[in-house]
Specification:
The complex is a heterotrimer of chains A (370), B (339) and C (407).
Chain A lengths: L6 E5 L11 E7 L2 E8 L7 H7 L5 H6 L6 H16 L5 H30 L4 H21 L8 E2 L2 E2 L5 H26 L2 H7 L7 H7 L4 H5 L6 H4 L11 E4 L5 H25 L22 E9 L2 E9 L7 E5 L1 H6 L2 H5 L4 H11 L3 H5 L1
Antiparallel strand pairs in A: 1-2, 2-3, 4-5, 7-8, 8-9
Chain B lengths: L1 E4 L2 E7 L11 H18 L33 E5 L13 H5 L5 E7 L6 E11 L8 H5 L5 E3 L14 E2 L1 H4 E3 H7 L1 H20 L8 H4 L15 H5 L18 H17 L12 H7 L9 H9 L14 H17 L3
Parallel strand pairs in B: 3-8
Antiparallel strand pairs in B: 1-2, 3-6, 4-5, 5-7
Helix pairs in contact in B: 5-6, 9-12
Chain C lengths: L1 E2 L7 H38 L15 H10 L11 H19 L7 E2 L6 H9 L2 H11 L3 H32 L4 H7 L2 H4 L7 H17 L24 H25 L14 H27 L7 H31 L5 H7 L7 H26 L8 H5 L5
Parallel strand pairs in C: 1-2
Chain lengths: 370, 339, 407
């Protein structure tokens, strides 16, 4: 076969579709990708070190800034880690509130992630803006209940910062009347679009074994056909009370990931329905009043808590030496670990596919670089 | 497909890859069809204001139209003082300084002019707005409800040093906060004002009111009655009040319904703001005769001062007569609840 | 049909004056049209996305393009240090020149700047120059993304140019002329509804031409050379200020030209009910109105497609153009020949006259038969092509894969 000179191209750190400041050092032969080296760290903010200096409570708003699409989920995961460490009971009502927030987060994350993926593919923002429309509505609700749209800072140890009221619940119910229409129109818009099919099918295949060996999680892993979901594997909060399915793909390409996300939104909707139904019977207030939030000093020990963030398994590892701040604080960021499989997924495809594959991983650089 | 694990059974659904369908352009046509439908709806100006609505224009024409901020909305911290006396609520207990994650709060405690002992008031209070992360912890931990989160988000400036905000610029009257967050203030008002009275006893002379004098619209601490809600907010940019929830582009009757719901909610949430005696109520009532009770400041302010005070959100863009009708509706609603 | 008015003051002075007026009108009209198109596209796409689009500058934001033009003109003109200065400078000139040349023969309604006998050929000869400008920009910028974009542009041109021209052949067969003037005039039958798009062959030609025109005008799904999510801005990466504006202008003027061409070739140009009845002046005005409605409707279709579908990969465009469009277009040329034979041949083929009667514009039997026959041929062709292309890579044998048939 004819060999031509290879070209090294830096995709990023300033590039329209690297989802932040991420650099891919790409070697191409014509348009075909020969090698890819991910380079990151441009958004490093010393998060883990800060977590070892701050008090436990002070670190909560910093977790908002990890995966800034899903601050509610980050708060939940961190609060769970501290609760495990300090042995704090969480009232049932607070658990339900957290689940509702998590699932709303999942819908808004997938709505925008799918939009961004299609934007990377070149669809001119239509699907993205439809997704952002739903996201806006959910963010308004977050603002109503927590005070901020994105940096919610909502969880506290043993519960959540403010209780939700009837207005919030009625608005969520109203939102949920519209959501199925959004899902339908989104599917109608693009799921069977011929161009999407040729762009996504067979592109960026991540075989099951490789996915497992890279320890990727979330829709990426489920797209490769492994039905792993923390909500089922290790049910936290009140997830064991809900009936929902885990969507899995069969091939492990971009299209499977796309479809898994679409289906996950519908499953989140199911969970929301059940949670809203069960919540009035839940006991306890929105927070455990016995917890000293500011001067929390957990006993010596360690804890690891994980939740199913929309991007994958989000884990917080904490070691306490009995003082007011953590001795060791580590974040298992799903974006970061999912990103490690990028090079293997991309090799042999075209440059145009690289951005699509990157989009299908759904990374947030705040979480990758920390 | 179901998978049995130790933790129970897991339902697994395989996604439908549409492998067996014939794709001859009908997928694209379907997409074109739905996009065209969207276009048609939006072209004829259908507004998308309801949360269950998925069609029509959903953007808000800022700055003419504004979304109404939730009461709990937190932007930057502010400090409160009592309208009536100009007494600041802050006692410089350093709770907020200690909890602040980015450590942007710097307090200097006031000293007794004669004995040199610390008194429960702050001499200087600096907040670095440029580094503040709006987490709201300071407002959450403050035992005296002196520090609260503002709703003003139009803070962009070319003057960077000005973002180290000093005490005089942080102070807002209590009525200002009450206007932006009526229910949240109603929950804590009695306790906060009681604590303030206790603290005032330990403050000699003018300490704790000094900073209030410098606020625009206040001539001296001796004449605190000038501090009407509207005056307190004077000099600030316009901001929308906390009344409506959805937006300014809603129709009249919809708005009325919304108001009714909100009123009901307020009642449910533990006491409407209009109940209970208020320290400055009498002052204000005498001062601005003809105004409605200050508990309904949002409305009265807009009527009296024409959108300079804490205006009810939808009132901003309305014409005079529309506003009048709106007020009538609100009055009726209140009457209905047997106020 | 109305020619531009020629005042016979003195033969050559009149010619020069008229030419200058024409050129000015075309340039001004083209640029204004481009400005209008950018606004039109942005508003339309905004409505599709539940937004409002630019609505601040001027009534309904109509002056937004003006403000942007001022902005780009006042920007600093930057040439990269290592760029090939001459090529870098000339690239936008070549691009714009190619576009403006095409406007020389494009009709505005039933009015023609100049009635070239080989107008159709001329248009596609000069718009082919586009790619030269693209490649110059890509190479001259000395930027890897720009180079990739320029090469993509060439690869794309190789793919779409042949189906584009082949799709035109049926129209030339039907009208028997290469002159746009004649082609438009011939569609004036049947109360102004004798458009070529109303025949199966014309429809097939229109659809294939439209798809190829999307590629020619670098519209989604074929905006591959400047794919902003992949290669930053392709060949435009190193351009800013006025040079970028010139590229932009040329791009939109090309789109405008393509809409005009499609409206003239397939949708009857300015023809419509009442044009001939109203006489020269009123009819001419009416024809302009019809023409712009048609052209803007076509552009709306382009915008609708942009608002809906993702972008194809460059190799997929190549496969699509060569394996799908080209066979269909070739078959269409064949069925057009049959159409012409059935509807027009009298003495040449006595057997048709025996079966269907004399050829005439009111011999509906002949047209009916022609419609049925060509429709069947075209549908069979589409079916066969899809059947062949439907084969997945997994269906191929190893030998075929080794031969490179898999892609």
């Amino acid at each position: 076969m004819l060999k031509t000179e290879e070209l090294q191209v830096n995709i990023g750190p300033q590039h329209p579709s690297t989802h932040g400041v991420f650099r891919m050092l790409v070697t191409v032969d014509g348009e075909t990708l020969v090698d890819l080296k991910p380079v990151f760290g441009y958004l490093h903010r010393n998060h883990e070190q800060l977590g070892e200096v701050n008090s436990y409570l002070q670190n909560m708003p910093f977790t908002d800034r990890l995966d800034y699409f899903n601050s509610m989920v980050n708060n939940h995961a961190y609060a769970r880690a501290v609760e495990q460490l300090a042995g704090i009971e969480v009232p049932e009502r607070a658990q339900y509130i957290r689940v509702i927030m998590d699932e709303l987060s999942r819908i808004l994350n997938h709505a925008s992630a799918l939009g961004f993926l299609l934007g990377d593919m070149g669809a001119w923002q239509t699907s993205l803006l439809w997704g952002l429309r739903e996201r806006e509505k959910i963010l308004d609700l977050f603002e109503y209940v927590s005070g901020a749209r994105m940096m919610c800072n909502y969880s506290r140890f043993g519960g959540v910062a403010r209780d939700i009221d009837d207005y919030f619940i009625s608005e969520v119910k109203k939102l949920m009347q519209g959501l199925p229409r959004y899902f339908d129109e989104f599917e109608r818009l693009l799921v069977e679009n011929e161009i999407l099919l040729v762009r996504a099918k067979g592109v960026g295949v991540l075989p099951k074994e490789l996915a497992l060996s890279y320890s990727v999680t979330g829709p990426l892993l489920r797209g490769s056909g492994v039905p792993y979901d923390v909500r089922k594997a290790e049910p936290y909060a009140v997830y064991d009370r809900f009936d929902f399915d885990i969507p899995v793909g069969t091939v492990g390409d971009v299209y499977d990931r796309f479809l898994v996300r679409v289906e996950e939104m519908r499953q989140s909707y199911r969970i929301l329905e059940q949670a809203l139904q069960q919540m009035p019977e839940a006991e306890g207030g929105h927070i455990n009043p016995k917890v000293k939030q500011q001067s929390l000093k957990p006993p010596v020990g360690e804890s690891y808590a994980r939740v199913e963030s929309p991007k994958g398994e989000l884990g917080f590892y904490l070691v306490s030496d009995g003082s007011g701040s953590a001795y060791r604080y580590k974040v298992r960021a799903p974006s970061f670990i999912n990103l490690s499989a990028l090079a293997d997924m991309c090799k042999g495809y075209k440059i145009a596919d690289v951005v699509v594959i990157l989009g299908s991983i759904d990374i947030v650089m705040g979480e990758v670089d920390r | 497909m179901t998978l049995s694990t130790r933790k129970g059974t897991v339902n697994i659904v395989e996604v439908n890859r549409h492998d067996n369908n014939i794709h001859a352009g009908q997928g694209t046509l379907k997409g074109l069809d739905i996009v065209f439908r969207k276009f048609r709806k939006a072209l004829f100006g259908k507004a998308n204001t309801e949360r269950d609505d998925t069609e029509g224009q959903f953007n808000v024409q800022y700055p003419e139209e504004r979304l109404v901020l939730a009461e709990a909305y937190r932007n930057m911290p502010i400090l409160l003082y009592d309208d009536a006396t100009g007494q600041e609520l802050c006692t410089s207990c350093f709770q907020c300084e200690r909890v602040c994650p980015p450590q942007v709060i710097h307090i200097t405690q006031a000293k007794h002019p004669e004995t040199g002992k610390p008194v429960p008031a702050a001499a200087e209070f600096v907040l670095e707005y440029d580094t503040c992360m709006s987490c709201g912890y300071c407002a959450e931990v403050c035992p005296f409800d002196a520090i609260k989160m503002d709703h003003d988000f139009e803070l962009s400036t070319a003057d960077h040093p000005a973002l180290d905000v000093h005490y005089t610029h942080l102070l807002r009257p209590v009525s200002y906060y009450e206007a932006i967050a009526p229910t949240m203030w109603a929950e804590v008002r009695d306790a906060a004002l009681k604590k303030l009275q206790n603290n005032i006893k330990r403050r000699p002379g003018n300490i704790g009111v000094d900073h209030g004098q410098k606020i625009a619209g206040k001539s001296s601490a001796a004449a605190p009655k000038a501090a009407t809600p509207a005056a307190g907010a004077a000099g600030r940019k316009q901001y929308t009040g906390p009344i409506a929830k959805v937006g300014t582009s809603m129709s009249e009757d919809k708005l009325a319904r919304l108001m009714a719901i909100r009123e009901a909610n307020t009642g449910k949430r533990g006491g409407p703001p209009e109940s209970g005696a208020h320290a400055i109520e009498a002052d204000v009532a005498t001062n601005a005769a003809g105004q409605v009770a200050p508990s309904d400041q949002a409305t009265s302010g807009s009527a009296a001062s024409k959108a300079t005070g804490p205006v009810a959100a939808p009132g901003k863009n309305m014409s005079e007569d529309k506003l009048a009708r709106l007020m009538a509706i609100r009055e009726a609603n209140k009457a209905k609840q047997g106020e | 049909m109305t020619y531009w008015p020629v005042i016979a003051v003195d033969a050559w002075i009149g010619l020069v004056l008229v030419s200058i007026i024409k050129v000015t009108l075309i340039l001004v009209g083209g640029s204004l049209g481009m400005m209008f198109l950018t606004w039109y596209e942005r508003r339309a796409i905004a409505y599709m996305q539940d937004r409002r689009g630019p609505n601040r500058v001027g009534p309904q934001g109509l002056l937004q393009p003006v403000s942007e033009a001022i902005k780009t003109m006042t920007k600093e003109d930057i040439t990269p240090l290592d760029a090939d200065r001459v090529v870098h400078f000339l690239a936008p000139v070549v691009m714009l020149g190619a576009t403006v040349l095409a406007f020389a023969v494009i009709p505005w309604g039933n009015l023609f700047p100049s009635s070239l006998r080989v107008g159709v050929l001329f248009i596609f000869a000069v718009t082919g120059l586009h790619t030269v400008g693209m490649l110059m920009a890509g190479w001259g910028s000395n930027n890897k993304f720009a180079l990739l974009g320029g090469m993509r542009g060439v690869a794309q041109m190789v793919s779409y140019e042949i189906p584009l021209l082949m799709a035109l052949l049926p129209i030339i067969l039907l009208s028997g002329s290469l002159s746009l003037t004649d082609i438009v005039t011939r569609q004036g039958d049947w109360y102004g509804f004798g458009w070529y798009v109303f025949s199966p062959v014309g429809l097939t030609a229109f659809i294939t031409f439209f798809i190829a025109a999307l590629a020619e005008g670098e519209r989604t799904p074929f905006d591959i050379p400047e794919a902003d999510s992949e290669i930053v801005a392709g060949y435009l990466t190193e351009y800013g200020g006025m040079k970028f504006a010139v590229f932009y202008l040329s791009n939109y003027m090309t789109n405008l030209a393509l809409c005009f061409i499609m409206a003239s070739l397939f949708l009857g140009g300015g023809n419509g009910p009442g044009v001939t009845a109203l006489g020269t002046v009123l009819g001419g005005l009416l024809s302009l109105v019809y023409f712009f409605i048609k052209a803007l409707a076509l552009f709306f279709l382009m915008v609708l497609i942009r608002g809906t579908v993702p972008r194809l990969r460059v190799d997929q465009l190549m496969g699509f153009a060569w394996k799908f469009l080209l066979p269909i277009v070739l078959v269409n040329v064949f069925s057009t020949a049959i159409w012409v034979a059935i509807t027009r041949w009298g003495p040449q083929a006595q057997i048709f006259t025996d079966w269907f009667g004399e050829p005439a514009s009111d011999n509906y039997l002949r047209y009916g038969v022609a419609i049925v026959v060509t429709l069947i041929i075209n549908l069979l062709a589409v079916y066969a092509v899809m059947r062949i292309n439907r084969r997945q890579p997994s269906d191929l044998t190893e030998e075929e894969i080794a031969l490179g048939l898999a892609g």
